[in-house]
Amino acid sequence: MKSEKALLSTDAVRRIARLARLSLSDDEVEVFARELSDILAYVNLLQEVDTENVRVTNQVTGLSNVMREDAVVSCENPEEIIELAPEHEGNLVKVRAVFDS
Amino acid sequence: MSVDILSLTIAKARQGLQHKQFTCVELLGACYDRIRAHDGDVRAFLTLTEERAMVQAEEVDRKIDRNEPLGPLEGIPIAVKDVICTRGVRTTAASKILEQYHPPYDATIVTKLKQAGAIIVGKVNCDEFAHGASTENSAYGPSHNPWDLTRSPGGSSGGSSAALSAGFCLAALGTDTGGSTRQPGGWCNLYGLRPTYGRMSRYGLISMTSSTDTPGILAKTAEDTALLLSLLSGVDAHDATTLPSAAPSADSHMSQSAQGLTIGLPKEFFENNIDASSAQVMDQAVETLTALGATVEQVSLPHTKYGVPVYYILTPSEVSSNLGRFDGIRYGHRSPEADSLYEVYTRSRGEGFGPEAKRRIMIGTYALSSGYYDAYYKQAQKVRTIIADEVKALFKRVDVLLTPVSPHVAIKLGEKSDDPVAMYQEDVFMDTAVMAGIPALSVPAGFADGLPVGMQLMGPQLEEARLLSVAHHYESATDWITRTPTL
Question: Which residue of chain A has the CA closest to B358?
């Protein structure tokens, strides 16, 4: 990992935005290149910590394999849920074509 | 009769209702009167539920007239942070992307509030998706601190702290991912409890950082905080990370003595890292606790300064994943401009998310991307382990840790809003408890230049009762909680 100031170019910002499915204006791309570089420079402080032989913390509860009965539970208000979709038809959520025709 | 809502606590309001000193309609009426008079300045609420609340209040009055048994929160007005789902009541997460979202279900903690008889006054403002420390990241504008309207009430649960200290309700629900309940409590002369991770269900909280999100309680006294904790805790089939431990009792704030208690003061939270006026308040608080019989020990948490950088890798990473669900398909904003499925995703998200949510999605996507995962996310998870182990080890020597909530009093609105890294560092004393999943409580500890200063108590996992007991003894020996802002 590099530690110089300009960690992210505008091209890199555009590439990340594509991965994140986020449209950004040209102005936003410029601002983010600067701000995200500042943030990355700051969090890079962590590189100085010796973590050899340290385990990762994924969770803090100490619980493992929390099980429940594998039973079907019915939904009491399906209409309410379908109604939330920006477009719907009957009991179906309406979306754009997934594959080009 | 008129109800002096500012001086009421939950405990006093329960008595007042039971002894018919005032009706529930009068109690709720007093809240809405103050909201009408002052929320134009404070801007705590995003949605009011007055019509529904007044119907409930009338029902409570009928129950009281008929001498029917009352729930432990029967008729108590409570505000709910807008990242907590309330069935049929608009829940925006202070984001444009959820501007018209009416959840089809209640969060578990909301279900529990309702079962106890509480009345929801409305939904309160916060930073968008709880990303922030001042409410300035709300898509609907910031809330204002009732102690000084030019200042922030804290964040992200700043609408909760503003509403409670302004006398718009008698308690408020918040959330605490990296200090979002404790810091607003500290800046508004209120209690702010982050429970042990797993103590209270996260089901129905709009997810931010799943490995550190907890619900939070804002209340006026240790007693009220203990009551709410007892009612809102417990294992939940809808949240596999909830702990099966029994909930603390409603009087857990009286469970332990201050006599013989050892309080650790981690030097990294004092020294040159806080304002002189806040340091003075801390010194006095420590003196008061010593007079109550506690012993004080200087201790050290050398990795404290890495807490914020760890947080700002783990959080954006988990945020980038959790906010992936907002895709314009099933609920929330869908861009009318989109020409393809890809554009439905990118434009809906680009139009719906504000700057800080976008910033976090971007940082997180980068940190989790191929080639960077080990250097960022994995390294942060390892440093998290070091910070957590360090604080847990101290609890073999001391019973509780005492620190300031913030390095300074409430910041001015606009003071840090243009500098994301400076705003991130507002969490500097908040992240230790987050990393370890231990409970932490902010306690009203005095004033500096007329503004509230909070002290933070941290304890071992599941030891909320110990923190609430220390707080209760301290509260009994001081009069800070009787002070209220003038609007």
Answer: A22
Buried-exposed string A19-45: b where 16+ CB fall within 10 A, e elsewhere? ebbbbbeeebbebbbebbbebbbbbbe
The residue annotated as part of the active site, out of B156, B160, B417, B469, is: B156
Instruction: Indicate the number of domains in chain A.
Output: 1
Sign (positive or negative) of CA dihedral B142, B146, B148, B149: positive
User: B249 CB contacts (<8 Å, ≥6 apart)?
Assistant: B226, B230, B255, B465
B385 touches A: beta carbon within 8 Å: yes
Pairing status of strand B295-299 against strand B440-448: unpaired
Contacting residues of B for A32, CB less than 8 Å apart: 358-359, 362
Supply the range of the domain harboring residue A33: 10-46
Instruction: Write out pLDDT tens, residues B355-406.
Output: 999 999 999 999 999 899 999 999 999 999 999 999 999 999 999 999 999 9
In a domain, A80, yes or no: no
User: Does residue A42 form part of some domain?
Assistant: yes
The CATH code of the domain that includes A22 is 1.10.20
Q: Map tokens 């500290």 to a residue.
A: B186
Q: Are strands B440-448 and B191-194 parallel, antiparallel or unpaired?
A: antiparallel
Chain A nearest-CA distance from B310, in A, is: 7
Residue A59 is assigned to a structural domain of this protein: no
pTM above the 0.90 mark? yes
Please indicate whether, in this complex, the C-beta atoms of B198 and A36 are within 8 angstroms of each other. Answer: no
A94: in domain: no
Which among B8, B115, B111 has a CA at the least distance from the CA of B72? B115
